[in-house]
Design a protein that fits this description.
TIM Barrel; 51% helix; globular; two-stranded antiparallel ribbon; alpha/beta; eight-stranded parallel β-barrel; 417 residues
Length: 417
């Protein structure tokens, strides 16, 4: 098993041009006393949209590490893969996010369900978990109901894990199981049953992504009850610590927060909870780097600004088709999107003020930001024209990418007292 260190940050790089800029943020963190491991992640769907292959992510990451002299580990995540998509990632990745969302809710066989319940009498009755104030009582029927919802998904995760292990042979890797794409947040008993099932499948899981309360919309802040989130996050950490001892799961098992970038209002609660349990965390960023590329283009002015305006105009025209695949993770009020004719007259400062995630700026427009978040397909269709503009505006782009990750993400999560 390849060991993932305590704190790690999933850094998406859709066009494979910002690896060094992203790594500089981790270098700045290390200089200030926080070791945050970069994990470059790219999903099968993103590869399909951009027209890239998994080895391109590994090549960009390795090159950045070599050129900047990064002395700590780094990893490449095959993000949200399943049995049908994993094979193209086998050689390039050493971190695998097992996506079993499609199987959540499917029931395992009656024989497997009965065997699981019979094998885990410790889950029935009064269960006391250190760090959770009140013990909870779980009936045998409750255990069976939870297993009926999640056991088949865990079995699917086991099948994916074993396939990867067989294909990689002696090459070690890191395993994450994603359980966040379900209808409601997992309760402590549900998470405990899930972890017991994962242990039963002998998956050496190092990160798990549960469903949290609230909405994790792409590119914007958390929407929901922050107090309730902190309670759930803290209880999840308590359950994980308990399950590690109870089921012999890897000692470094930690929570993974999907679409964790730009969720500024919950970074304080996450930081407090981590310190309370001396726990680690993996935070996956989602598209925040792509938006900083656009900000860098606009900031550069000239042709860069013109391209940023074009991308907005095209995204606005195609907004229905762009938004539809992301309907569950965006909330865009079309009436609050500026007309492209208006945007076409903007200065660099007007464009960047509307797009940059600065909630204190009265010109910030979270509707525009979310639309451009899903609008990376527009840039993908531009091919080399977009990539060459990134290179022409590299100084502006890279500065914004580094500053965004370090100042708005790493510092409040890992460095703020």
């Amino acid at each position: 098993m390849l060991t993932l260190e305590k704190f790690s940050l999933g850094v998406g790089d859709r066009f494979a041009h910002q690896a060094k800029a992203q790594l500089r943020a981790c270098i700045k963190a290390a200089e200030q006393g926080a070791t945050v491991i970069p994990v470059w992640n790219k999903s099968n769907r993103e590869h399909g949209i951009v027209g890239s292959e998994p080895p391109s992510v590994r090549a960009a990451a390795d090159q950045a590490v070599a050129e900047l002299g990064w002395k700590h580990p780094h990893h490449v995540d095959a993000d949200h893969i399943n049995l049908g998509t994993v094979d193209r990632f086998i050689d390039a990745s050493d971190f695998y996010t097992l996506d079993v969302a499609a199987t959540i809710g499917e029931s395992a066989s009656p024989e497997d369900l009965n065997a699981f319940v019979a094998a885990h009498p410790e889950l029935t009755g009064t269960v006391t978990i250190p760090g959770i104030d009140d013990p909870f009582v779980i009936t045998r029927e409750s255990v069976a109901a939870i297993a009926a919802k999640y056991l088949a998904a865990v079995q699917q995760a086991g099948a994916i894990y074993r396939h990867i292990a067989a294909e990689r042979g002696e090459r070690a890797f890191i395993t994450e199981v994603s359980m966040d794409e379900t209808d409601s947040p997992q309760t402590p008993p549900e998470l405990l049953v899930i972890l017991a099932a994962i242990a039963g499948e002998k998956i050496p899981i190092q990160t798990i992504a549960p469903k949290f309360t609230g909405r994790f919309n792409k590119g914007v802040d958390y929407v929901g009850d922050v107090v309730q989130f902190e309670k759930e996050f803290s209880e999840d950490l308590a359950v994980i610590a308990f399950a590690i001892k109870q089921y012999g799961l890897p000692e470094n098992l930690k929570l993974s927060v999907h679409s964790g970038s730009d969720k500024f209002s919950i970074y304080g609660p996450i930081r407090r909870s981590l310190r309370k349990f001396n726990a680690g965390v993996h935070v996956k960023t989602a598209g925040t780097t792509w938006l900083e590329e656009l900000i860098g283009l606009a900031e550069a002015g000239g042709e860069g600004l013109e391209m940023a305006k074009y991308i907005y105009a095209k995204a606005f025209a195609d907004r229905d088709s762009l938004c539809q695949p992301y309907a569950t993770v965006i909330d865009i009020d079309y009436a609050k999107l500026p007309d492209p004719a208006v945007v076409n007259g903007w200065t660099s400062e007007q464009y960047t003020s509307a797009l940059r995630h600065d909630q204190k700026n009265p010109d910030f427009n979270q509707n525009l930001r979310q639309l451009l978040h899903v609008g990376f397909k527009v840039a993908a269709k531009m091919g080399d024209k977009y990539l060459k503009m990134l290179e022409a505006c590299e100084a502006n782009v890279s500065r914004n990418v580094t500053e965004n990750l370090f100042e708005r993400h790493i510092k409040p999560l890992f460095l703020t007292e």
